[in-house]
Amino acid sequence: MTTTATAADAAHLDYVLRIADSALILGQRLAEWCGHGPVIEEDIALTNTALDLIGQARLLLTHAGHLEGKGRGEDALAFLRAEPEYRSLTICELPNEDFGRTCLRNCLFAAFQMQLWQALASSSDAQLAAIAGKSIKEARYHLQHASDWTVRLGDGTEESHGRMQRALDYLWPYTAEFFSPTATDQQAEAAGIGPAGSSLAAAWEESVVPVLEVATLKVPARTPFLSRGKEGRHSEHMGHLLAEMQYLQRAHPGGTW
């Protein structure tokens, strides 16, 4: 195998892991709402969203294991990697805080997923294209649900509006990572595997900004801040999340249920 081929294979694996890990980590975060939702319908809705994301992660991690070719399956990749090996977007690992911030994050992330899945439906990677075809239906529901709550709370009471504006001010800088260029993006795009994140920015804003306007929320100005979770450089919250997520698998290696 040539050096060029090796680099292309590594970029292909890294690209798939980014998508898989983002779904896995956000799914883990949303699962924390189980039994704690403000009303039973929303408790169930958030839990179902978590299950959808973890289902996407399972398919993608299984595919990543085949691409890697080292015999690691979905469980090993999900639970037995060190923190810097995860390629999830930083926004996915941030604490939930209140219901409004959770819904707003879901809105921002699901809008990105919608653009990504649509582009991946024509991927040269047939397995990735098949996963995209299934997942886009789920992302469409996630976006609609989260958008509805973003508007309801943003254009609600003075208290709910203030909380949502503070949530947007906090979360918005992390969305720059969706579109930051990397060598992995360039190689994946060149091989027809999937789009570079930067190519999705305009369509994402066209999807998100009108929702925020109806919610009477002011979009913050961009700053030089750039999170780098997809490069393995995570926030202080990731280690705590992984400690809980990985505990059972590490305490009982190879356990089956």
How would you describe the overall organization of this protein?
The chain is mainly alpha-helical. The protein has one domain: Ferritin, core subunit, four-helix bundle (Ferritin). It has helices spanning 3-31, 40-68, 74-79, 99-120, 126-154, 158-171, 176-179, 183-190, 201-214, 237-251. Helix 2 (40-68) packs antiparallel against helix 5 (126-154), helix 4 packs antiparallel against helix 5 (126-154) and helix 4 packs antiparallel against helix 9. The longest helix is centred in the first third of the chain and has 29 residues, at 3-31. It starts with a helix and ends in a 6-residue tail after the last helix.
The helix-strand sequence is HHHHHHHHHH
Q: Averaging pLDDT over every residue, what do you get?
A: 95
Silhouette: globular
Our Rg estimate from Cα atoms comes to: 18 Å
Low-confidence stretches: none
In CATH, the topology is named Ferritin
Distance from N terminus to C terminus (CA atoms, Å) equals 40 Å
Kindly provide the name of the CATH class. Mainly Alpha
Total of DSSP H or I helical runs spanning 4+ residues:
10
> How many strand elements?
0
CATH superfamily grouping: Ferritin, core subunit, four-helix bundle
Let me know the largest β-sheet: none
- Named at the architecture level, the CATH assignment is Up-down Bundle
Helix content: 55-70%
* Strand coverage percent: under 5%
Derived structural class: mainly alpha
Number of domains: 1
